[in-house]
Amino acid sequence: MKTKLLYVVALVAILAMPSIAQANLLSNPGFEVEGTVAQDAADWIESGAAQREPWANHTDLWGMGLVPWESGGTGNAYQEVGIVGGEEYTYNIWTLRDPGTFSGSFYMTLAWYDGGLYDSENSQTITVSGTTWEQKTLVATAPATADSVHVIFGSTGVNYSGKFDDADLDGAPVPEPNTLLLLGSGLVGLIGFVKRKRS
Fold first, then answer.
1. CATH: 3.40.50.10190, 3.20.80.10, 3.60.21.10, 2.60.120.260. Which one for 25-172?
2. Rounded CA gap, 109 and 151, in Å?
3. pTM of the model
4. Half-sphere exposure of residue 36: CA atoms within 13 angstroms, side-chain side
5. Is the separation of the CB atoms in 104 and 155 below 8 Å?
6. Helical packing angle, 2-16 and 177-198, nearest 10°
7. Would the pLDDT of 67 be above 90?
8. Alpha carbon of 74 to those of 47, 48, 102: distances in Å?
9. What is the pLDDT of residue 182?
């Protein structure tokens, strides 16, 4: 009876593990944490027109503005995240258009890397035209050999400001070594317990 109960508990634990993958894999997704002068939203790398701004917020106090008076409206921000190759990932970000004459485009990209080397990417142009906040979504499957992804949003030649906030990346996280060790030792212990009961 105890052996059957242990099998049921182990099965439930294994089936429950994928639910962990639904947590946001990005750190500082709302750009609330300040970084250095060169990178003013911690954990995000910014270039050109991208900069953390208090007027660009969807929630809380800060968001990311892509502003035309910096670098002619061209720029981006990205964060690198460890991932599991072959898994599907969903990238969401909230956007809002600031008043101005429409031109140029905005985009969101998942750029896949294998051992620090660029592999490929999934990218889409997004329309940032709403006068109320809108969520944009990109769903893609990582290449089988990929181990990290650059989660990117940016602009090309726009002459009005785009506001970005509350990004998230959902999918399979890279298991931490301690978690794998704990799971492995637990399974070994369970097998040993079952064998001892049978003998």
1. 2.60.120.260
2. 6
3. 0.79
4. 5
5. yes
6. 160
7. no
8. 9, 6, 14
9. 45
